[in-house]
């Protein structure tokens, strides 16, 4: 019961309070920046077959042409990416009779997607970062 | 020793208290699922604690509806009804009865322009399949003999349906998706979900609640002359449904002429009413109604379609004509923003 026990705020406590203040203040400003950067500098292209994610490809606006193969059923499809855009390469007529997916051409906006109905394939960007949340057609 | 323990505790607190704060702030979990059903791509996104459960239940329900109402699924109610055309009443699910009943109501409202007995004509043209072609005049005349929604007989008491003449068949493609959106809305409610975006095949979008941050959703409307995904206008809102019909959705080209998938039951040919797309926007009606109305307004065209929509409170429509003119009903003031300057807006002329 000495006088010393009355001393409630020790120097460690002061250190703790200042440290907490710095951490919370800086995270307030830094976190949104870090997150926004992540979204704008790169695009994730997702390939889904029958609703299941089979491949994710990271591209940015300056990326070199890439040809990415993915499996669906017993077949293999190929997407081509360049400059942040992606397109589906034509498939065999027996697998994709109408070729609507490859005729879609290049897509580059986050709300766009390539759909191959007969083979249940969707190619799309994973993050939306535009004016609209979707497009009705 | 005691000092060291205290220091360690202090450091741990410094690290974990801010972390826990961040974790608490993030109670808007997002869950999205994309499935292939109803002959198209379905995407449902929900936010909040029950997001995953609500979305999974929604997909289950869609599968159920598809199994009942698809004309492609063997053993569906629709196949059973079609197989027994001209023969006998068929017992079906009450949900199927409800959708057929609603479809017949819109047959009446549209003066026969919306007709689920159009199936023989749809099959003849085959638009959207790999055997799409322009049929001969006599083939079309023959198929049209079987079109009349008044020949669909409903026995609501016993949940039974009969097509009165042999050769008739029905297709709920123009309305089943709308019904599905209504059912998903109920599932979201039951699960206490406050924010969700329901996209059925791209042509039917339901904005459930607001965006998680409380703001309006923004939905682009397809530019009928541009690539898929290019929009000419934005509609903003919450608790709102948007349903589009366009001549660019499914079509084929023969001898340089384009034939789209919205067939006029009175001519037997793709509807030519001077519009390239119509969009229904509403915070008032059910999705099943909007699904039927977007097809009806497409067949009716600007003048008649506008008159019909203005007579329905809380329902709005956007018509686009081949010369880039956009006609919008009066209720869309402030909700519709043209983003492509080639399009000219004419509000409620």
UniProtKB/TrEMBL annotation, chain A:
Residues annotated as transmembrane:
15-32
Which terms are listed as keywords in the entry?
Membrane, Transmembrane, Transmembrane helix
Checking Pfam families in the record gives:
NusG_II
Protein's UniProt name: NusG domain-containing protein
Species of origin: Thermoanaerobacterium butyriciformans
Could you read off the lineage of the organism from its UniProt record?
Bacteria, Bacillati, Bacillota, Clostridia, Thermoanaerobacterales
Automatic annotation (TrEMBL), chain B:
Q: Which UniProt keywords apply?
A: Cell inner membrane, Cell membrane, FAD, Flavoprotein, Lipoprotein, Magnesium, Membrane, Metal-binding, Signal, Transferase
Q: Which protein, by its recorded name, is this? A: FAD:protein FMN transferase
What domain of life is recorded for the organism?
Answer: Bacteria
Q: Where in the cell is it found?
A: Cell inner membrane
Q: Which residues form the signal peptide?
A: 1-23
Query: What organism, scientifically named, is this protein from?
Result: Thermoanaerobacterium butyriciformans
Physiological role: Flavin transferase that catalyzes the transfer of the FMN moiety of FAD and its covalent binding to the hydroxyl group of a threonine residue in a target flavoprotein.
Instruction: Supply the enzyme class, top level.
Output: transferase
Q: What family does this chain come from, according to its entry? A: Belongs to the ApbE family.
What membrane topology is annotated for this entry?
A: Lipid-anchor
Q: Which InterPro entries match?
A: ApbE, ApbE-like_sf
Which cofactor does the UniProt annotation name? Mg(2+)
Catalysed reaction equations from the record: L-threonyl-[protein] + FAD = FMN-L-threonyl-[protein] + AMP + H(+)
């Amino acid at each position: 019961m000495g006088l010393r026990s009355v001393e409630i705020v020790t120097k460690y406590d002061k250190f703790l309070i200042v440290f907490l203040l710095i951490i919370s203040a800086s995270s307030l400003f830094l976190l949104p920046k870090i997150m926004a950067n992540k979204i704008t500098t790169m695009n994730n292209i997702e390939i889904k077959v029958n609703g299941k994610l089979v491949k994710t490809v990271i591209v940015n606006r300056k990326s070199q042409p890439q040809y990415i193969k993915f499996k669906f059923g017993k077949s293999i499809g190929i997407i081509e990416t360049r400059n942040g855009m992606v397109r589906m390469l034509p498939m065999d007529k027996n697998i994709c009779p109408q070729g609507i997916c490859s005729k879609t051409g290049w897509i580059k906006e986050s709300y766009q997607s390539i759909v191959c109905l007969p083979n249940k394939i969707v190619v799309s960007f994973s993050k939306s970062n535009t004016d609209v949340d979707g497009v009705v057609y | 020793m005691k000092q060291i323990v205290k220091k360690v505790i202090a450091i741990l607190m410094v690290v974990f208290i801010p972390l826990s704060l961040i974790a608490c702030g993030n109670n808007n979990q997002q869950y999205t699922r994309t499935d292939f059903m109803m002959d198209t791509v379905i995407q449902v996104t929900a936010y909040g604690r029950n997001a995953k459960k609500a979305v999974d239940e929604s997909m289950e329900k869609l599968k159920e509806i598809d199994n009942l109402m698809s004309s492609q699924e063997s053993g569906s109610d629709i196949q059973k009804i079609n197989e027994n055309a001209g023969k006998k009443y068929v017992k079906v699910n009450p949900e199927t009865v409800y959708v057929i009943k609603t479809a017949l109501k819109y047959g009446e409202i549209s003066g026969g322009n919306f007709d689920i007995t159009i199936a023989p004509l749809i099959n003849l043209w085959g638009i959207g399949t790999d055997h799409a072609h322009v049929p001969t005049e006599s083939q079309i005349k023959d198929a049209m003999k079987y079109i009349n929604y008044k020949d669909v007989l409903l026995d609501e008491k016993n949940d039974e349906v009969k097509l009165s003449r042999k050769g008739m068949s029905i297709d709920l493609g123009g309305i089943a998706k709308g019904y599905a959106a209504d059912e998903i809305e109920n599932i979201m409610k039951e699960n206490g979900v406050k924010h969700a975006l329901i996209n059925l095949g791209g042509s039917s979008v339901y904005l459930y609640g607001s965006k998680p941050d409380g703001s309006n959703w923004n939905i682009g409307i397809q530019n009928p002359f541009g690539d898929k995904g290019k929009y000419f206008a934005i509609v903003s809102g919450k608790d709102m449904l948007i349903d589009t019909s366009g001549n660019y959705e499914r079509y084929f080209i023969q001898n340089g002429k384009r034939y789209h998938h919205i067939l006029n039951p009175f001519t037997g040919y793709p509807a030519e009413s001077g519009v390239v797309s119509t969009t229904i926007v509403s915070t008032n009606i059910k999705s099943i109604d909007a699904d039927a109305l977007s097809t009806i307004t497409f067949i009716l065209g600007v003048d008649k379609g506008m008159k019909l929509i203005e007579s329905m409170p809380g329902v709005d429509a956007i018509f686009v004509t081949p010369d880039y003119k956009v006609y919008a009903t009066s209720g869309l003031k402030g909700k519709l923003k043209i983003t492509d300057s080639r399009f000219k807006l004419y509000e409620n002329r």
